[in-house]
Amino acid sequence: MGRNGLFAVLIGWILMSFQGFAAAEDGTHTARYQRPPKAITDILDAPPTPQVSISPTRDYLLVIDRESYPPIAEVAAPMLRLAGERIDPRTNGPHLPPRGKGLTLQKISDGERRRIELPAEANVGFLQWSPDGKQTAFTITTDAGIELWTARVDDAKAKRVGNFSVNAAYGDPVQWMPDSRTLLVQTIPAGRGPPPAQAQAPDGPTIQESSGRAGPVRTYQDLLKNAHDEALFDYYCTSQLVAAHADGHAIPVGKPAVFSNVEHSSDGDHLLIVRIERPYSYVVPALRFPKVVEVWNKSGQVEFTVARLPLADRIPIDGVATGPRSYGWMPTQPATLVWVEALDEGDPKKKVLHRDKLLMLGAPFKDEPAELTKTEHRFSGLTWGEKGFALVRDYDRDRRWTRTFHISIDKPNQPPRLLWERSINDNYGDPGTPLLKPLPNGRRVAWQSGDSIFLDSEGATPRGDRPFLDKYNLATGEKQRLFQCDDARFESVVALLADDGSQFITRHETPTQPPNYFVRTTGGQRRTLTDFPDPMPQLRQITKELVIYNRPDGVKLSFTLYLPPDRKPGEALPTIVWAYPREYNDADTAGQVTGSTNRFTTINGISHLFLLTQGYAILDGATMPVVGDPETANNTYIEQIVASAAAAIDKAAEMGVTDRRRVGVGGHSYGAFMTANLLAHSDLFCAGVARSGAYNRTLTPFGFQSERRTLWEAPDIYLKMSPLLVADKINEPILLIHGEADNNAGTFPIQSERLYQAIRGNGGIVRYVTLPHESHGYAARESIEHTLFEMVSWFDKHVKQYGK
């Protein structure tokens, strides 16, 4: 088929994608929610393990009890989808807020615990410690709005702060000031009035226009659609900043605005303000709307305008916006701004000596900004040191390569010094991430002892992850290994207790022991901090094993083999392959092992691991690497995933655990896309389950996943990789599941609708389940139960019973 023929097919499928969804001849109907087998619901009933937050002064733990699954009535509550945000109009906060249900303070020194008394049925979220560690602030969401509360560690008593309502619809709603007595809060403006009403008749058409300049954008969802949406966005996202004091009084700061970012300076005397301004856009979300970046004093008066940034709707693929970005305060100076600017017009395809520069400007913001450093490749991150240095990272997109440099703040003329570099896919070579130390002003910097910092890493090895803590000397490059997890457990460092690294807190777990926290020393002593019980003892007989094997082309692959508790020795089981493809530059990094079989075995949500309770073997995380040059790797996407899937099945059959006649495949999102392609291009599987996927790549024309080429640059690839266009070859049964309110870029529900119609129209076996009110992942207990019911029923019918 020639290029013109390909485009004819393309246009035809695009037109079909917007036709109505007709009922299947077998019947389209609305069903009641179904429940999976009791073995699964018993596990869903188990309470989740609490979360733990460590105070900045390292003397208290805050243990946060959680609630797992909201009911469908809560998920179905009113929701506004505006400029990429999902807002609950009743609370003026996020749809489905955090679900903290209880708070307990625990002393690290002696384990003393005190429960913080909260209002009945409190829904706790946005929790933050004060810089001095003496109290914590948090929000409580009620049906009428969002309240601000604090609790002190000395008496564990909670109280509401002020009588205002927090506006958590957009931006960061609450933060402590450096004095640990004042909170900067985004609130609903007083006297706001009712929300704007929808006009019965429009004033006129909605018009979008382009001036001829290229403006590639992703296929975003939840965008503004008309003038009424714009008015609603202004209404719900406009906040009044207030300085709220512990005694309850609140002082307004500046004028109301839509704040995308508010950050106090290290001395607390200035505020970095990022305000969103009109004109809004109907093709990009709020994070790309025009912005004004300003410095205010504590009273809300403008001291300095950093930048006025236009609508960012014409950023090149893999590029960045021009003008200041990544702006913030230097944590070790009273009031010094730092930001990044592109030197290549934000275009990664331009050939330049340096892509970015890092600038700084101190109060009173009258001088010209000083240049801290330039980066040869794209700036990708910054870690401040406490003693006059910073670690700057850049990223080379062509090589997928990251580097970390040491720069001296006190000696700006000193050239950056390379500390380490690696492929972003080289997990074995990861030196670790600097542990951060909270400062008295609330900022965080690299934890430093003399000339050394502390590096924490997952510690990927060919045997699986073995987390470690290193003490790294910045002057000499020497490393001292302070801690490394052994082969029998998974234990990682979460905080230092001693500044020299001799004592620290770890999070410890094994396949049969739930995660708990311990105080450890470099001398090997260990003291228990928490004793959370096993919430799912019925899972302890499940076994898991890391399995390594090769693809025919020599690429090393792996999966975690899970076996059900009741498997008889030597029994070959019906098996499910669950996977998610990833892209790599080379075979060496593609073959690296990540994850650990030493993690505590737990199952929640819509996990495919629930199938273990029904007698299936699971090849979990079966690696599906797509290896090649980043510009062209997808040219052989189909061939590589088919070869990887075949190798996984061959290995499991060779081990005697898999009946190769009864193998199913499944995945979520890009894994669903993989599933449909494997069924279309191979006969390896009896059936598949594809959840929340995208199947027509012409509907994501400006790139997808790691594909950099547009549809018009590589039409053959977009068509070849779209399972919709080979739906006639999907001759194994496939179950499609999709949330009706999917908000993920590219995975519109229409993707599943059209694949269903295509398979049905070609005589294939297909079932399509849409979940009301659910997003890209599924939240409601009823939706989760029904999803698991569908998966179990489908695989039982088409895999377990295959040939019987």
Structure overview:
The protein contains 10 helices and 47 strands. Helix 6 (637-654) packs across helix 7 (670-681). 14% of the residues lie in helices and 34% in strands. The strands form 11 sheets. The protein has an 8-stranded mixed sheet, sandwiched between helices. A 7-stranded antiparallel sheet has the order 12-13-14-15-16-17-18, covered by helices on one side. Strands 27, 30, 31, 32 and 33 form a 5-stranded antiparallel sheet that branches. The protein starts with a helix and ends with a helix. The longest helix has 20 residues, at 781-800. With 804 residues, the chain is mainly beta.
Compact summary:
Helices cover 14% and strands 34% of the residues. The chain has 804 residues and is mainly β. Helix 6 (637-654) packs across helix 7.
List the helices and strands and how they pair.
Elements (H helix, E strand, L loop, with lengths): L2 H15 L20 H7 L6 E4 L5 E7 L5 H4 L4 E3 L2 E4 L4 E2 L5 E8 L5 E4 L7 E6 L5 E8 L2 E8 L5 E3 L13 E3 L5 E6 L39 H11 L1 E7 L4 E15 L5 E7 L14 E7 L4 E8 L15 E5 L6 E7 L13 E7 L7 E6 L2 E7 L4 E8 L4 E8 L8 E7 L9 E2 L1 E3 L5 E3 L1 E2 L2 E6 L10 E6 L5 E6 L5 E7 L6 E7 L6 E6 L4 E3 L14 E8 L5 E8 L9 E6 L3 E3 L2 H4 L26 E4 L4 E3 L9 H18 L3 E11 L1 H12 L5 E5 L23 H6 L13 E6 L9 H13 L4 E6 L9 H20 L4
Parallel strand pairs: 40-42, 40-44, 41-43, 44-45, 45-46, 46-47
Antiparallel strand pairs: 1-2, 2-6, 3-4, 4-5, 6-7, 8-9, 9-10, 10-11, 12-13, 13-14, 14-15, 15-16, 16-17, 17-18, 19-20, 20-21, 21-22, 23-24, 24-25, 25-26, 27-31, 28-29, 30-31, 31-32, 32-33, 34-35, 35-36, 36-37, 38-39, 39-42
